Amino acid sequence: MTGNIPTPEEMSDHLQIIMRGVNSQLFQILGNRVVYGPFKGMEIKQDPAWRDGNAGTKLLGCYEFELEPTIAKAVERNPKAIINIGCAEGYYAIGLARLLPDAIVFAVDLDESSLWECRELAIKNDVAERMQFYRGCHYANELDFDVPENRLYVIDCEGDEDKLLDKQQCPALIKSDIIVECHDFLKPGITEELRKRFSDTHEIEVIKPQLPPLGRFPAMAEAPAVMELLAVTEKRPMPTRWLACWAH
Measuring CA to CA, how many Å separate 53 from each of 12, 164, 167, 222? Predict the structure, then answer.
């Protein structure tokens, strides 16, 4: 604590403690399958190893709500391979595997517990036979899997996006679609740096964080307003932007 004013990280920690109770109620009421959004019907976990406090947000299907049009566009472009760096328990890796039944999916994370959860949930969601699981990914050349060129990279690597998204070390990025979360609070200016880096080979969209409109979720109609607000608000130390890079 800095004086009497908590830091953003401390506020995020306090909010996650509160969210354990809120999320518990949500799962008790709604079950363990995503209720709305692009990944509706997907089975998820209430207490994943990666404890970001957003299990309830994922259950409602409004996790990273601002990406809904981006996910729809990515699916329309029909990638044959999906490489999800920083997959955690598999929200995107499994969700996209369900939406793209002809694609092979690579789920990559540094945390072994998260990878085990991703495997378990892939089995429960009947997509495990099309998924491969890898621990690690420290260098850009590790992104170049032996798969068809029509690829989609989904990257959330907590500040390492500058190091990993290197077209010289991984030329496959030039012909691939890329959706990447930019952690400017960890590496200032990284959104603009990556935008410039890929502007000659991709159409770039900068996606700003958005709060889903309250009242969008009928399942929350009887819940107190504060519970709905907590459920749909992501628990982050700082807001982050995304880049959607569509290969020419």
Answer: 9, 26, 34, 22
